[in-house]
Write a structure and sequence with these properties.
Layout (H helix, E strand, L loop, with lengths): L2 H17 L26 E3 L3 E15 L2 E8 L8 E3 L4 E8 L8 E3 L21 E7 L6 E6 L6 H6 L4 E5 L2 H4 L7 E10 L1 E2 L2 E2 L6 H4 L5 E4 L2 E2 L2 E3 L4 E8 L6 E5 L5 E6 L2 E9 L2 E3 L4 E7 L6 E6 L12 E7 L26 E8 L2 E2 L17 E3 L4 E8 L5 E5 L4 E6 L9 E2 L1 E4 L4 E7 L5 E7 L2 H5 L3 E6 L1
Parallel strand pairs: 2-5, 4-9, 10-16, 15-23, 24-27, 26-34
Antiparallel strand pairs: 1-2, 2-3, 5-7, 6-8, 8-9, 10-13, 11-12, 13-14, 16-21, 17-20, 17-22, 18-19, 18-21, 22-23, 24-25, 27-32, 28-31, 28-33, 29-30, 29-32, 33-34
Bound molecules: CU-O-CU linkage and copper (II) ion (CU) (2 copies).
Amino acid sequence: MNSSRRRFVGAAAASLLASRSWAACAPAPRIRTGQGLRPLPNLPLDRSPSWGARGALTAARSNVDVGSSAVRVMSYDGGFPGPVLRLRPGETLNLKFDNQLDVATNLHFHGLYVSPSGRADNIWVVAPPGAGFEYELQVAAQEAGVHWIHPHVHGHTAKQLFAGLAMPVIVQGEIDRDSELAQAEDHVLVLKDFGIENCEVAAHTPTDWIFGKEGEWLLVNGQLRPVLRAGKSLLRLRLVNASNSRFWRIALDSGEALHLIALDGRFLGQRMEVAELLLVPAARAEVLVALPDHRTRKLLYRNYPRVGRNATAEQPILTLLPPASPQPVALPGRLMNLERFDERLAEGHREVRFSPMLINGKPFHHHHQGGHVAPTFEVRAGTREIWTVHNDDVMNHPFHLHTWHFDILSVNGRPPAIAAIRDMLNLSPGDAARIGIHFSDFSGRTMFHCHIAEHADRGMMAVLDVR
Ligand code: C2O
Ligand code: CU
Ligand code: CU
């Protein structure tokens, strides 16, 4: 090899190294402390008064860094988690989805109050590898809150979700501009536990399919224990639990209360002080944290005991550094007029029973995502119903209903600790919860299920036909 050729090879190798910006494959990620929290980018959208918002989204395999380790994940637009889809109340979204994975996938707009049919939040649609689907949906006029997108292909959701397919959806409403909330510094935080084996996403074990997969690394926006340096004295943290099965109990290390303002994309009637917050899989919460002094605070993870899973040690997940000149802050009191469910208007009562991998004694049909699944319930569009949801199992199961939020009327005969309109409900063993649902505005075939992704994949899912 002559010297100019050698120089050329050397330069090519150097530029290859330089362009390979991710870390090397390491046996396990090391926690790099002090890394600044990376804000998630927004998904670019084209807006026009005539067509609304247009965008594109790609699911693909990507290399990302977790701590100091490189790992090959599944991503939306290369992100782990994916970018934030920011929508406005009342607008139409046209989203060209492109599946560059080697497996079929689709998008579920978890929590968004949109049609479950046609090209909207239609989970019966599947994009084969290399194909796409053009989603189109109309954001409700009264919407303001945090939702999220994840895949919903029966039998495959758990693996794809664990591998990284998740992204937040934020609808910015009037209340965000016209209240004390406008003074807060807004951060979207995706909570996800993760496991890595030889630079690949950790595989599911047989026990994972029973108890739900957990990973040892507790990530915030794909980072291990990042640091948020606040610019303002009031933080608004918008939390999304994008874990397959991990229940997160969140608290401040200072012992101060969290100021809870919203759950599952719906504001509470008024701000509530909570010593800690339980986020079941797929749940969202918005909390305000005041930083009126020079103290450093930490957001803590605490274990929630679950059958079949070892306890994870309490640990900090996010450090909150105060702003340069901390100030006293004003917190909002009243937030919204909660529209509570009126039991006198209920036209139907139903019983839902969760038992191991079954709902009302039946598994979801495994072989078809499409038309062959008989509905467990047929509901008349526009009516109100009360469902009693029983957990007959020894495990916790987080109940989720698509499309319609519900009012939790009682849990084991008592009013719930927090009055809220939600789309997630934690069912402990033996629990019976009564929920009120108004099947307003939309019709179509949709579903309710346990949101431990492995349980849903194995059949803890049922079809609801609203006509
Ligand atoms: Cu987030 Cu059918 O689920
Ligand atoms: Cu959902
Ligand atoms: Cu379950």
